[in-house]
Amino acid sequence: MNLAAQNAKEELIKKRREIGDTGALLELKSALGLATVPTRIEGFDIAHLAGKNTVASLISFKNGVPDKKNYRYFRIRSLGGAIDDFASIREAVARRYTRLINEEADLPDLILIDGGAGQVSAAKEILDELGLDCDLAGLAKKNEEIYLPDRLGPIVLPKDSPALRVLVAIRDETHRFATGLSKKLRTKDLRFTVLKSVEGIGEARAKRLMKSFGSLGAIAVAEPEAIAKAAGISLDKALAVKEKAAVSYGAD
Q: Does the pLDDT of residue 188 top 80, yes or no?
């Protein structure tokens, strides 16, 4: 992409952020048969690494552009190490909208799930249990098919559709946010595992060390006396922690 085209693209993005993307939202309302123009859309995605650190991301778009102050994430608690995207969606949707109900907060105009008919059904099950009549859709990666509850077969919009562009942007942002969080949690868990492999270092002391130094790399180059003071351990234990951190530094 040449400089002029890049500048034009950035200017368009800036303008959309300032005034929104009303045309795309009007088209989206018509294409999906929504109850209202989806000024506020919340999107969900699930991410995990080998079944661990499962998280659900919740992102918000307002007037067709990201509303990052309302991004959230949920560490999924109900799976016990199992891999179940449907159960993860049910938990995340239940936690999000139970809270909004309790706080008497405004609901989104549209909820978008990253996935197809199965994921949409999982979310719809929870919305029905909560007594919420919210517009709901899923966007599957294959052919960018749009799934609605109680509708046979997907909706496929033209590839150049402004409405589809908004949905894809939301779906891709939920995926980016969820995947980044899952990787971050995995890295954090690895750090604690390394520290707790030293005899006498439990969860509490590992947390104190990470709070004091921030990374395995910082522990690896710290003075043993500083490590001992931070964790409340002997100098011999501090030397063992320093050595373990240095050996594992490449994984930090």
A: no
